[in-house]
Amino acid sequence: MTTILFDLDGTIINSFLGITRCVQYALRSKGIEVENLEDLEEYIGPPLKQTFQKNYDFSDEETIDLIRKYRERFDVTGIFENELYPGVEQTLLHLKERGYPLVLASSKPETACKRILEKHGLLSCFDEVVGATLDGRISTKEQVLKEVFRRIGSNDPKDYVLIGDTIYDVEGANKVGMDCIGVSYGFGKAEDLERAGAVSVCRDLEEVERVVIERY
């Protein structure tokens, strides 16, 4: 039976406010004011270090401090500024009833992933939760997926399929040889997901469930 991997931000939860407000808070600590939260949407998906350094000429030390400020707000407030997308619980339960092993695979710190799932009553739906490590050892999607291989005990990418909303999910899956089903209701665009190599792009979780059952 194929193991179904779900991304978190933009796939299971709409975390726009939680992430962008924390980025705004972190940048403000460096004297950078970004009023429009939509200008910070690009921080959703890739590792924070990558996006901070792409947009600003921060040193590694400054970036570490920014991430610390981000987590300062996120751990208290931002972690609760999210909501489930419609149909999440139903889809997870239906797939579990059919016998699919479910894994949460996110570039968000693993401890935060578990707290968010617990908040929404979904932690028990997943057989494993795999996320980034706070020491930076695991941060990219590719590294997260390789850690999934290690924990589940199979290195065959054909034993898995990833559900995700951004090109970072698709590219990470491609790097380890895994199929990725894109979702267009999150933070990525359908055309970008298709161009990156998603095997299918779904408009909602009902369609995700149908595609998984038909193909895997």
Give the number of domains: 2
Strand content: 15-25%
- Count of individual helical segments: 9
Characterize the main sheet: 6 strands, parallel
Helix content: 40-55%
Mean pLDDT: 96
- Main sheet strand line-up: 5-4-1-6-7-8
Spans where pLDDT lies below 50 across 5 or more residues = none
The CATH H-level homologous superfamily of the largest domain: HAD superfamily/HAD-like
The secondary-structure class comes to: alpha/beta
What is the subunit organization of this protein?
single chain
**How far do the termini sit from each other?**
8 Å
CATH topology of the largest domain: Rossmann fold
Give the radius of gyration: 17 Å
Level-1 CATH class name of the largest domain: Alpha Beta
* Shape verdict: globular
The second-level CATH architecture of the largest domain is 3-Layer(aba) Sandwich
